[in-house]
Amino acid sequence: MLVSIALPVYNAQEFLDECFESILKQNRSTDDQGQASKINDTEEKTETVFSVEVSVYDDGSTDSSPSLIDKWAKTFGSTQGFSFRLSKNDTGSPKGVGFARNETIRQSTGDYICFCDADDIMDPNRISAQLKLNMLHPEAIIGSKFRRLPADSTRSFTCWANSLTERQLQTQIYMTFGPTIVMPTWFCHRRVYDRVEGGFNESGKGTPEDLIFFYKHLDQNGKVARVDQELVIYRYHSSATTFSVTDEIIRNIRLERMESKVLNSWNKFSIWNAGKLGRRFYRSLSPQTRQKVTCLCDVDKKKITQKWYHPHPIKEKVSIVHVKDASPPFVICVKTEITWDPTGDFRMLLDSLNLEEGVDYYYFN
């Protein structure tokens, strides 16, 4: 069995040695995991030995990345159980992350694809743990928990992503942070990638290609699952491609899909939050969907005493009521930080209503 590591590179000289070294240290047997032999409470005794193919696409690096890649190509080429594939963009202009990811996969030959960014570090058991779970869930994109470097950077994002339950991996797909399976941790069978026509969006800089692919995967009835171990060190730095994508672009994609897949099937619904986030959500809806909004609801007395929200130039006005006077289903527009603390006021109120996430409510923020 062959696992291909899809590794796009662009000006990553600071990080490549650590990244490649972590790949070279991968355990190549699903029985090498020791305590990880039991994944997500699923026992699996069968051992699988696999080889690793490192598939690199250099998207026109202008630093010392090319020489580092050549050095590591020789190392992998002379190491048993590893092979190396390389292609380069010689046009003088980077083609973007989506194109680069697609190229790493097009030139690869593995049965399974392990996604890796050049600035990240893989735990030695990453491939073996994810492969093991993927063999149990062949139609899924498999993720894992991760650690941030530096520690405590993007704390809210990390806490949210690592604390998601199996159910929430399916339901919290409209949150501000993007896919519930975080891209640097993706692992899947090749046919899962092949089912998404065109692979990753190749529009270039400023495109959330991972979110677009993720939604297309779900639209193909694709599944998601996660190994509940920290298998990737996910580096945070100002030159990361994440910073080239604006929040507004991501928000519009999330909103469009939520209207299509959720709100269109509801006859009516309430917006939980009569403040800034809820009002913005209401204004952003299409006119047809706005007609379904019965109220904005809140617990803040000052907001409730306003009684109505009537934003110009929208013709309709919508009532503002207490949460307990509103009826599900809800779109809950609150800050992510308050959603995961079961002892906080918000969660205690939400839990007291005995609602089912993904049926009676979805989050959008």
From TrEMBL:
Alphabetical list of SUPFAM superfamilies matching this protein: Nucleotide-diphospho-sugar transferases
Q: Does the keyword Glycosyltransferase apply?
A: yes
Q: Which UniProt keywords apply?
A: Glycosyltransferase, Transferase
Checking InterPro entries in the record gives: Glyco_trans_2-like, Nucleotide-diphossugar_trans
Q: Which domain of life is it from?
A: Eukaryota
Residue stretches making up the Glycosyltransferase 2-like domain: 4-159
Query: Which is one GO molecular function term here?
Result: hexosyltransferase activity
* Name by which UniProt lists this protein: UDP-GlcNAc:betaGal beta-1,3-N-acetylglucosaminyltransferase-like protein 1
Q: Which organism is it from?
A: Orchesella cincta
From which lineage does this chain's organism come?
Eukaryota, Metazoa, Ecdysozoa, Arthropoda, Hexapoda
